[in-house]
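Structure in, sequence out. Go:
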């Protein structure tokens, strides 16, 4: 994946766009900002409703013969925390880059705050934390943050940005001396420097340890509570489950599910039944109540009666059938299906086993 358009990988206005280097507070200049104009439009009586924060229709991106994103349509409203979930290569980064205006769609359209994502007024309201960014290595953390905040008309203060990114103690460290996790926190700092109304986060916690990841989630929740809209990509299912109020699952560049985490789990199967029985897996799979059956982890096909894991939306009916026919049913547990199981069924593949964070969350 590629990098952003200015130091730090954010996507605010360029130096040439900014006519003044002063950084006024949004509240001090209410009548001149794009945000204030939109806010007024949403609150005045009889005004048309504000446009969706993101409106993408039929987005397609081809790289030669490869269709990386395939007729993807997405509407995202204000204040939503939306996870784009998918395995590696699903098209998450390409989608985000098209929504940011960094890549040109082969087909389809994107509107952000009702306008072109490349428009100066749009970029002033958008922050982005992409997978790679290159803040100047010789600057200190505080200098890098101060540099980037001057690209934006309504930036936060340096102290505030550093505090939110948990970087106060590193403020005088050179960028080139930061660890991977600290670098990722700096990328977050640079993404929020302009106090954006819309924040894109591409795999934001990949280099963070568990404690840092939870702190990060708290910050993101805080931003959403202020009415900011957040779109993040992840292949960490726990992250999508914990943070997002909406999960969009993409695979091979297409949306394969879109809803709350609970809704997505329910589309696959409401419940997971584990049991040991005298029926084999093939016989169970043929029953109408069973959507999917597999051996439990650590069990072998050679075992006479292995523990089986069954996905079903009607566990009561399934168990009634088994008991009614006099089958053995032992070591029975019935539980909610987790998002990982739903995800595996939707994309037809396990989540990336190389992700070291997966099991720790
Ligand atoms: P994800 O972010 O879900 O891992 P990407 O959007 O990075 O997926 O990639 C989607 C597909 O497009 C992958 O098959 C990837 O190899 C391919 N791809 C991404 N960028 C390019 C590019 N610049 N040139 C050719 N293929 C690309």
């Amino acid at each position: 994946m590629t990098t952003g358009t200015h130091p730090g990988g954010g996507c605010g206005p360029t130096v040439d766009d900014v006519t003044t280097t002063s950084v006024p507070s949004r509240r001090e200049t209410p009548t001149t900002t794009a945000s204030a104009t939109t806010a007024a439009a949403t609150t005045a009586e009889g005004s048309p409703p504000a446009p969706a924060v993101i409106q993408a229709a039929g987005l397609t991106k081809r790289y030669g013969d490869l269709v990386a994103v395939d007729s993807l349509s997405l509407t995202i409203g204000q204040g939503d925390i939306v996870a784009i979930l998918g395995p590696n290569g699903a098209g998450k980064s390409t989608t985000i880059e098209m929504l940011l205006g960094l890549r040109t769609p082969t087909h389809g359209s994107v509107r952000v705050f009702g306008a072109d994502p490349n428009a100066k007024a749009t970029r002033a309201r958008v922050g982005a934390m992409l997978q790679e960014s290159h803040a100047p290595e010789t600057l200190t953390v505080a200098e890098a943050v101060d540099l980037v905040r001057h690209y934006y008309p309504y930036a936060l203060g340096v102290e505030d940005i550093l505090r939110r990114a948990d970087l106060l103690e590193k403020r005088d460290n050179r960028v080139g001396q930061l660890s991977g996790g600290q670098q990722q926190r700096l990328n977050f700092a640079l993404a929020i420097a302009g106090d954006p109304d819309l924040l894109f986060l591409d795999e934001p916690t990949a280099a963070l340890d568990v404690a840092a990841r939870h702190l990060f989630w708290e910050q993101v929740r805080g931003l959403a509570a202020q009415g900011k809209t957040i779109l993040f990509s992840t292949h960490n299912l726990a992250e999508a489950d914990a943070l997002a109020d909406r999960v969009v699952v993409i695979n091979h560049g297409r949306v394969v599910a879109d809803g709350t985490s609970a809704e997505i789990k329910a589309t696959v199967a409401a419940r997971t039944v584990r049991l040991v029985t005298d029926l084999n897996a093939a016989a169970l799979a043929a029953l109408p109540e069973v959507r999917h059956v597999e051996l439990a982890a650590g069990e072998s096909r050679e075992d006479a009666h292995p523990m089986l894991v069954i996905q079903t939306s009607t566990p009561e009916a399934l168990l009634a059938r088994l008991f009614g026919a006099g089958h053995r049913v032992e070591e029975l547990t019935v539980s909610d299906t987790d998002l990982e199981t739903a995800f595996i069924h939707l994309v037809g593949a396990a989540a990336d086993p190389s992700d070291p964070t997966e099991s720790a969350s």
